[in-house]
């Protein structure tokens, strides 16, 4: 079994939503919008929430719909995101998607580590 990518999960949801919702369908076919930019928007919004963010399906899909609903939307792009989801290709469609966004923490330099150790008191000094 193969796990779907974040972009695939979002695209599948939006395609299904467009097929079922006649008001959303024209917004989804807007040539100025695309799935990759939509996913960058979702990740940017998740990044605003903190370093390790777990979002519900409704929150993630709500952000995707918001991206398509708004004509002029600002996308906050920042690197270092790792996205995971638990949806499998062979799972039934009614099972919920669980998406997690983890931002890679900044790596401390060796110099910063040495400065931290100088501040530490020792019982043997």
Tell me what the structure shows:
This protein is α+β, with helices and mostly antiparallel strands and 125 residues long. 44% of the residues lie in helices and 11% in strands. The chain has helices spanning 6-20, 25-28, 35-47, 57-69, 110-119, and strands at 52-55, 81-85, 99-103. The chain has a three-stranded antiparallel β-sheet with strand order 1-3-2. The protein is elongated.
Key attributes of the depicted protein:
125 residues, alpha+beta, 3-stranded antiparallel β-sheet, 5 helices, 3 strands
The unreliable regions are 87-95
Mean pLDDT, all residues: 76
> Percent of residues in helical segments?
40-55%
Radius of gyration: 20 Å
Biggest beta-sheet profile: 3 strands, antiparallel
- Quickly give the structural class: alpha+beta
Record field, number of beta strands: 3
Organism: Parabacteroides segnis
Protein name: PcfK-like family protein
Pfam families: PcfK (PF14058)
Region (Disordered): 83-125
What are the SSEs and their pairings?
Blueprint: H1 6-20, H2 25-28, H3 35-47, E1 52-55, H4 57-69, E2 81-85, E3 99-103, H5 110-119
Antiparallel strand pairs: 1-3, 2-3
A few lines on this structure:
The chain has about 120 residues and is of the alpha+beta class. Helices cover about 45% and strands about 10% of the residues.
């Amino acid at each position: 079994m193969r796990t779907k990518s974040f972009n695939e999960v979002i695209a599948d949801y939006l395609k299904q939503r467009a097929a079922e919702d006649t008001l959303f369908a024209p917004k989804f076919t807007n040539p100025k919008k695309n799935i990759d930019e939509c996913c960058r928007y979702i990740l940017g919004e998740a990044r605003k929430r903190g370093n390790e963010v777990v979002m519900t399906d409704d929150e993630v899909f709500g952000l995707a719909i918001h991206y398509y609903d708004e004509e002029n939307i600002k996308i906050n792009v920042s690197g270092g995101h790792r996205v995971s989801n638990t949806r499998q290709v062979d799972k039934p469609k009614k099972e919920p998607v669980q998406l997690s966004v983890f931002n890679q923490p900044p790596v401390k330099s060796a110099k910063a580590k040495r400065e931290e150790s100088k501040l530490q008191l020792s019982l043997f000094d």
